[in-house]
Specification:
Elements: E1 2-10, E2 14-21, E3 32-37, E4 43-50, E5 55-62, H1 68-82, E6 86-95, E7 106-107, H2 110-118, H3 127-140, E8 146-150, H4 160-163, H5 169-172, H6 183-192, E9 203-209, E10 213-219, E11 222-226, H7 247-257, H8 261-270, H9 273-278, H10 284-289, H11 293-317, E12 322-326, H12 327-332, H13 334-342, H14 353-357, E13 371-374, H15 379-391
Parallel strand pairs: 1-6, 6-8, 9-12, 12-13
Antiparallel strand pairs: 1-2, 2-3, 3-4, 4-5, 7-8, 9-10, 10-11
Helix pairs in contact: 1-3, 6-15, 11-13
The chain binds adenosine-5'-diphosphate, acetylphosphate and magnesium ion.
Adenosine-5'-diphosphate is lined by residues 210-212, 239, 283-285, 288, 327-329, 332-333.
Function: Catalyzes the formation of acetyl phosphate from acetate and ATP. Can also catalyze the reverse reaction.
InterPro entries: Ac/propionate_kinase, Aliphatic_acid_kin_short-chain, Aliphatic_acid_kinase_CS, ATPase_NBD
Binding site for substrate: 94
Length: 393
């Protein structure tokens, strides 16, 4: 039997998974990876591919609205039947919120799980599903040790001032502060950057542009500032999340429209962002392909907010030596990178248009004083690495 480490990244409507062979050193590529999506709808779809990128599963299950637990059960049923040569020796989870308590990965026990359950209101789109993922594995594979890797942990290196809101001290003391997210992605980029750029130890801004999107400033490969804050709605405009918003707007809407917490949560997390502004889609591919002015305005706002935050993060880092694009949009949308960099010439950022169109690793022009790079992120590998290390596998 081959031994493997299973990685779970449970989102609101999908569960991404990857299986890494338990080898030393850990291979960069998973032996199998894929996702189940459509959770909560009448049709869930399981897709998986092997390390060569060939499809090894693509089937849909129709019927009752499947829950996360049912989706996990389906995933493990498929896994046990089709990947019989593997024994799972450890499971690593991406957990979005580790609060004030967790600044590094932790082996999961009942006490830790209860603590993570308490953080559910802090990340309602992610944390309930993260916790449900751990519970599902616990009941299906009770003997297998599980590790939690936190999106917030990498940002705990930030200076206190970068984490502080201008709120009364007593409120800040309750843990109401800027946590930051996408830490596993930033940690992966920080680890791999040195192989691609001599500027890795310098002042680096990383733009993680996916359905959830954020940016972080790194100095000496440590996070010093980031755009996501207390919750996963701050900073950039995202797929369905609003990004930075004057809190006065929230007060005004609650007051004048009588909206409650539930309605505001729905609006700020699910009905805003690219979807809300365009009225068409949350998917960047759809918006880039559309000639509707609302779609173009949504893309323009997305890019404008990146440019604004880039200036702010460069200020926090004391300058900028390298800019890294990653995440689904950062890695694949040359047009978004083009629109962003066009407005950053004042910082010495110049693109090589051909390299950008080819999605080359280095897309900056020779005269650019800032290295501009496209680096595919690999949060799953980062989790597998932590799980292997922590479990002493
Ligand atoms: N070829 C592409 N061109 C433009 N956008 C793309 C492309 N491929 C993926 N995307 C965008 O990437 C986003 C999803 O990114 P991803 O990092 O997978 O998200 P998440 O992990 O947050 O669910 C979607 O908005 C999608 O439209
Ligand atoms: C924290 C966050 O926004 O995560 P995701 O990009 O997976 O939605
Ligand atoms: Mg993601």
């Amino acid at each position: 039997m081959k031994q493997g480490i299973l990685i779970i990244n449970a989102g609101s409507s999908s569960i991404k998974f990857a299986l890494f062979p338990h080898t030393h050193p850990l291979a960069r590529e998973a032996a199998v990876c894929g996702q189940i999506d459509g959770i909560g709808t009448a049709e869930i779809r399981l897709q998986a591919k092997n390390h060569a990128g060939d499809s090894v599963a693509d089937h849909t299950l129709t019927g009752a609205h499947a829950s996360h637990t049912e989706a996990f059960a389906e995933l493990l049923r498929w896994f046990t039947a089709s990947q019989a040569e593997w024994t799972i020796v450890g499971v690593g989870h991406r957990i979005v919120h580790g609060g004030d308590r967790y600044s590094r990965p932790v082996r999961l026990d009942e006490a830790a799980l209860e603590q993570l359950t308490r953080y559910i209101p802090l990340a309602p789109l992610h944390q309930p599903h993260n916790v449900a993922g751990v519970r599902a594995i616990q009941s299906l594979l009770p003997e297998v040790p599980q590790v939690a890797c936190f999106d917030t942990a990498f940002h705990r290196s930030q200076p206190e001032i970068a984490q502080l809101f201008g709120l009364p001290r007593s409120i800040s003391a309750e843990g109401i502060k800027r946590y930051g997210f996408h830490g596993l992605s930033y940690e992966y980029i920080a680890r791999t950057l040195a192989t691609h750029s001599s500027r890795a130890e310098g002042r680096v801004v990383v733009a993680h542009l996916g359905n959830g999107a954020s940016m972080a400033a790194l100095v000496g490969r440590k996070s010093v500032a980031t755009t996501l804050g207390f919750s996963t709605i701050d900073g950039l405009v995202m797929g369905t999340r609003v990004g930075t918003l004057d809190p006065g707007v929230v007060l005004h809407l609650m007051e004048t429209k009588g909206l409650g917490v539930k309605e505001m949560t729905q609006m700020l997390y699910k009905d805003s962002g690219l979807l809300g502004v365009s009225g068409i889609s949350q998917d960047m591919r759809t918006l880039l392909a559309s000639d509707k002015p609302e779609a173009q305005q949504a893309v323009d706002l997305f890019c404008y907010r990146i440019v604004r935050e880039l200036g702010s993060l460069a200020a926090a880092a004391g300058g900028i030596d390298a800019l890294v694009f990653t995440g689904g949009i950062g890695e694949h949308a040359a047009e978004v990178r083009r629109r962003v960099c066009l407005h950053c010439a004042w910082m010495g950022i110049y693109l090589n248009p051909e390299a950008n169109a080819r999605h080359d690793l280095r897309i900056s022009a020779h005269n650019s004083s800032v290295d501009v790079l496209v680096i595919p992120t690999n949060e799953e590998w980062m989790i597998a690495y932590h799980a292997q290390t922590l479990l002493g596998l």
